[in-house]
Amino acid sequence: MQALTNRSKVVSNKKMSFLEKIYLPAIVKGMFITIKHFFGKKATISYPEQKREFSKVYRGLHVLKRDDEGRERCTACGLCAVACPAEAITITAAERKPDEKHLYREEKYAAIFEINMLRCIFCGDCEEACPKEAIFLTDRIVKAEYEREPFIYGKDILVEPIDKDKRIDVSDRQTENVLKFKTDKHYAHNK
Ligand code: SF4
Ligand code: SF4
Fold it and tell me: Least packed by Cβ within 10 Å: which of 25, 42, 100, 107?
């Protein structure tokens, strides 16, 4: 029968030589390969002391943004949850009280906003679906945990600090095209 590729090898039962029987050449060859790697470029780094440089648009841990006045931008519309292919987002909406205008930008806000980081595939669909520029993925890493429960991230982790100096910079993610998509009145989601 004709072989489909030329990768097949004919196996023979020929007797091994003395050197082959004591495996010495094979051991020396293996040691040589190991020692060669000591002097080559390392494939690993000593994380967390050392960190790799990420792409500017790396998609990591989400942030829920505040506006310039420190109010939460999210209006609990649920579009991000609908867009999420992993069904990782859970939102409970609440109505803003008159004395909460300094906390929430819109009349409705997310009383509970949770993302299950074990489900999330960091696709960025939530970010694209949001009409309020409230949710962004950042270059921050989701921490490793031993239990499943801490992977449910709530507002205490997701909402950025109110202190302007500690806000999360997402300017790299707001390219010209993204801004146009989110502000152009020709699109139904901006009307
Ligand atoms: S990044 Fe993707 S999977 Fe993760 S919460 Fe957003 S939409 Fe869902
Ligand atoms: S993050 Fe954006 S899309 Fe998601 S509920 Fe809030 S406003 Fe709506």
Answer: 42
Q: Specify the ligand 2 atom closest to the Cα of 64.
A: 1
Residue 153's DSSP bridge partners are 115
Confidence class for position 187, pLDDT limits 50, 70, 90: confident
pLDDT band at 174, cuts 50/70/90?
confident
Is residue 120 in contact with ligand 1, taking CB distance under 6 Å?
yes
Strand pairing report for 89-95 and 152-153: unpaired
| Most informative mutation of 91, 118, 123 for ligand 1 (most atoms within 8 A of CB) | 123
Work out the percent of the chain whose per-residue pLDDT is above 90.
63
> What's the rounded mean pLDDT across residues 174-187?
76
CATH number for the region 62-190 comes to 3.30.70.3270
Give the domain ranges of the chain. Answer: 62-190
Can the peptide bond before residue 150 be classed as cis, meaning omega within 30 degrees of 0?
Answer: no
Distance, CA 122 to ligand 1 centroid (Å)?
A: 5
pTM of the model: 0.75
The alpha carbon of 173 and the centre of ligand 2 are apart by a number of angstroms equal to: 17
